[in-house]
């Protein structure tokens, strides 16, 4: 068995209670590891219960919104996986725009400005809809005109185009 003078040099010591190695609080490095572990755990719990902390700013500016909308629309057009007839297409647009921006997804507002598109999965055909995109922190608005063509019983779309216009979509 070792005496206490030998334990001061070790970072880890063998515990008398649990039969395993633990940080040595008599060693300055062991004490720093104990404090660091506790701070890391407290910080992790704080971030766990405050997820908005890592999402960035809660407001958008006009330039950031413009670039995020244009990047998201070109990406969604090239992927040809989701069209305006897809269930919850507004959520897909919101997530894609937020991914290309640096601000919060919760600050985005996507509003359907036309009749809802009918899903063309079973019969094929054209899906089209207009969406107005706005965000907290800016008066900028964009009109997204989504147009998609799908073959009968196809999973992906043959063609998707999303055009972006300045201002809100006209009411229909």
Structure, explained:
This protein has 172 residues and is an alpha+beta fold. Helix content is 33%, strand content 23%. It has helices at residues 4-7, 28-49, 62-79, 89-100; strands at residues 12-14, 21-23, 108-112, 125-135, 141-150, 159-166. The strands form 2 sheets. Strands 3-4-5-6 form a 4-stranded antiparallel beta sheet. A two-stranded antiparallel sheet has the order 1-2. A hairpin with an 8-residue loop joins strand 5 and strand 6. Helix 3 (62-79) packs across helix 4. The mean pLDDT is 85.
Strand order of the largest sheet: 3-4-5-6
Label the overall shape. Answer: elongated
Largest sheet: 4 strands, antiparallel
Distance between the termini: 86 Å
Give a quick summary of the entry.
The protein is α+β, with helices and mostly antiparallel strands and 172 residues long. It has helices at residues 4-7, 28-49, 62-79, 89-100; strands at 12-14, 21-23, 108-112, 125-135, 141-150, 159-166.
């Amino acid at each position: 068995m070792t005496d206490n003078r030998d334990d001061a040099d070790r970072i880890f010591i063998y515990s008398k209670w649990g039969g395993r190695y633990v940080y040595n609080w008599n060693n300055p490095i062991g004490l720093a590891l104990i404090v660091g572990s506790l701070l890391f755990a407290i910080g992790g719990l704080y971030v766990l219960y405050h997820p908005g902390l890592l999402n960035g700013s809660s407001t958008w500016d006009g330039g950031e919104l413009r670039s995020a909308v244009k990047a998201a629309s070109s990406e969604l057009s090239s992927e040809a996986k989701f069209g305006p007839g897809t269930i919850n297409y507004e959520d897909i647009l919101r997530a894609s725009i937020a991914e290309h921006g640096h601000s919060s997804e919760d600050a985005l507002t996507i509003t359907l400005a036309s009749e809802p598109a009918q899903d063309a999965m079973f019969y094929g055909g054209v899906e089209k809809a207009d969406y107005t995109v706005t965000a907290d922190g800016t008066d900028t608005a964009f009109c997204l005109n989504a147009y998609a063509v799908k073959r009968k019983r196809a999973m992906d779309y043959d063609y998707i185009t999303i055009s972006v216009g300045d201002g809100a979509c006209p009411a229909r």
